[in-house]
Design brief:
Blueprint (H helix, E strand, L loop, with lengths): L2 H9 L3 E5 L7 H14 L5 E5 L1 H8 L3 H17 L7 E5 L5 H12 L2 H5 L2 H9 L8 H4 L1 H10 L5 E4 L4 H18 L5 H10 L3 H16 L5 H11 L4 H11 L11 E4 L27 H9 L20 H9 L2 H12 L5 H28 L2 H29 L6
Parallel strand pairs: 1-2, 2-3, 4-5
This protein binds tryptophan (TRP) and iron/sulfur cluster (SF4).
């Protein structure tokens, strides 16, 4: 990456997210994460990667599971409409710089930060059949921080369970900048840079900085960063202004923000959250006959034992599928038919089956060329790796510089 691209990296709002390759993705992933990714790729530079190293933290005894699902995970993304012409798709383990940043960040990260991450103790308790008292599993959120910080990402679309990880990434970036971003030239450089701003920009920036520094209105700092981002200054000039804003520390690693993905409205077939481990999911690329079979077998309102018993849609997981998949006319038909025993449950399920199949049709079509020719996927991942590597190398150069890790002969 050349410095002009880096300028873009700091100024543009990069979106980054990762997914662990541990099995076929299902409609919960589609309605939760992937639809959102496909939307974001139109408005932002996006990096989406297969977090295979992360998967190994829980699957270290079965690395083949991870390896076998990497390609399929990407095919599921492509099926869902993630577009390699817009987004950069790659595999975490193809960009070794993630590991280097992980290692360097590990030097100064307090153990307590890792131990207090809520997912840490939860997962150890939930996955009792696995020994997760490992160094790698404790380091999970730190590796995630490295994934994010190495691309200077601004937005990280994740579910609510991941928000503490993003928070920790922010703390880690802040700590890194505080430790290694000191530079006595900043004040003078920032003065010169500010002199080049439009007078009204200069005045606003000054006021915002005062409000943030003297009156503790820290949210003003974000607006100040926006002004800097939007200005016509050079990269070095912007960096100096940013550094002054952050208490005289250079911003070597950008603090990311969680972009909370709205919960998928679609529950699993049994009404609980859709999850592979509950065996209540429909895969993104599920065969037609299996979709039909799974929906026909869905539990319904337990009060409807016989066809002639009236039911209550609010006690039935099929109704949740109607809400997600069918229109209001159909909803009215279900409510009326269910509560008067006018329709049978199989009849009620048919429009859901039709709608799911209709939704999946374009996904199957998009996936087919990649299934027929997996080397197309490899090409996408190679191109993604090249692009991601260039960005990661650029950040690592700045990180090593800041830490004084330069080879001097
Ligand atoms: N921890 C994430 C999950 O389980 C996956 C992940 C790894 C990730 N690295 C990331 C997500 C970086 C966002 C950004 O879903
Ligand atoms: Fe559920 Fe439909 Fe049967 Fe009513 S008719 S119990 S909503 S499947």
């Amino acid at each position: 990456m050349h410095s002009t691209d880096v300028e873009l990296a700091a100024d543009r709002d990069i979106v980054l997210s990762g997914m662990r390759p541990t099995g076929a993705l299902h409609l919960g992933h589609y309605h939760g994460a992937l639809k959102n990714w496909a939307r974001l790729q139109h408005d932002h530079p996006c990096y989406f990667f297969v977090a295979d190293w992360h998967a190994l933290t829980t699957h270290y005894e079965t690395p083949e599971v991870v390896a076998n699902h990497t390609l399929d995970t990407v095919i599921d993304w492509l099926a869902a409409g993630v577009d390699p012409a817009r987004a950069t798709l790659f595999v975490q383990s193809h960009v070794l710089e993630h590991a280097e940043l992980f290692l360097l960040l590990g030097m100064g990260t307090p153990l307590a930060w890792l131990e207090r991450v809520p997912t840490y103790k939860d997962q150890i308790a939930n996955l009792k059949d696995k020994d997760l008292l490992t160094y790698g599993f404790l380091g999970y959120p730190l590796l995630q921080a490295a994934d994010i910080l190495i691309y200077q990402a601004r937005w990280v679309p994740v579910g609510a369970d991941q928000v503490p990880h993003i928070e920790m990434s922010r703390e880690i970036a802040r700590r890194f900048n505080a430790l290694y971003g000191k530079d006595p030239r900043i004040e003078a450089q920032a003065e010169l840079a500010a002199a080049k701003l439009l007078p009204e920009q200069r005045a606003e920036l000054h006021a915002l900085r005062r409000a943030a520094d003297q009156d503790g209105e820290v949210d003003k700092r974000e607006r100040a960063h926006e002004i800097i981002r939007g200005s016509k200054l050079s990269r070095a000039e912007k960096d100096a202004l940013r550094a002054r804003l952050e208490g005289g520390r250079r911003v070597i690693l950008r603090e990311p923000e969680a972009l909370l993905t709205p919960e998928s409205k679609l529950p699993g077939l049994d009404g609980r959250k859709m999850s592979k481990s509950y065996a209540n999911s429909i895969a993104i690329r599920e065969e037609k006959a299996i979709v039909e079979h799974k929906v026909r077998r869905m539990p319904t309102d337990p009060a409807r034992v016989k066809r002639t018993d009236a039911g209550d849609p609010d006690r039935c997981p099929v109704w949740q599928f109607h809400l997600a998949y069918t229109d209001e006319a159909c909803h009215a038909w279900v409510r009326e038919g269910c509560t008067t025993a006018g329709i049978g449950c199989l009849e009620c399920k048919q429009p859901v089956i039709d709608a799911v199949l209709r939704e999946q049709q374009p996904m199957l079509e998009r996936a087919q060329p990649y299934i027929d020719n997996p080397s197309l996927v490899r090409d996408i991942l190679d191109a993604g790796r090249d692009k991601a590597s260039a960005a990661a190398r650029e950040t690592m150069r700045a990180v090593r510089d800041a830490m004084g890790l330069r080879f001097k002969s």
